[in-house]
Amino acid sequence: MTAAQRSTADFKRELIGVIPQLRAFARGLCGRSELADDLVQETLLKAWAARDRFEPGTSIRAWTFVILRNVYLSGLRRARFQGDYDEVAAERILSAPAEQEAPLHLADLHRALMTLAPERREALLLIGAGGFSYEEAAAIAGCAVGTIKSRVGRARAQLATMIDNGTVERRSKRDPVANAAIMAELQRATRRR
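Predicted structure:
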C-alpha cells in the first residue's frame, strides 16, 4: 500500500468515525431527522471532495462541523425563497391541547431548543451535545470565545425560563420525535470526544 493510499484510508476511517456526531449536530440545528441526514450526506461528500485540503493531525471533527454548518447556512439562505409546510404548527392550529398536567419529556425540551435563535442553539449544541471546548466551538462558529460563552449562557437561561414558566409546548401523542432516538444521539455525541 502506497503512502497516498494509506493517507486516503486513514482519512476515510476518521471521516466515518465522526458521522454520529455530525448527525447529532445536524439534527440539533435543523430539528428534522430526514433533513439532518441530507445535511450529513452533503457534508460527507464535500469533505471527501476536499480531503486534499485537510491537514492531518488537526481535528477532523471540527473541520467537518464547519463544513456542515456552512452547508446548513447555505440551505437557510436558499430556503428564504421557498415555502415550507410545518406539520406541528398545522396540528396545533387544528386541535386543542389536553389541559391536564404532564411531565416535561425530552421531545418537549427538543421543541424548546428549536425555538432558540439559530446561533444560540448552535452554540449550545456544540458545547453541550458536541462536547467541544469554548475555543473549538468558537472556531467552528467563526466567532470570538466570549461570543460563544454569551450565546451558551443566554440559551441556557432562555430554556430554563421556558421550563420554569411552563411555556414549553407539550408533546402530542402523535409526535414524530422519539425520545429514545434523541437520547441515543446525545449520548453518542457526548461519549465520543
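Summary: Residues 9-191 form a domain with the Butyryl-CoA Dehydrogenase, subunit A; domain 3 fold (CATH 1.20.140.160).
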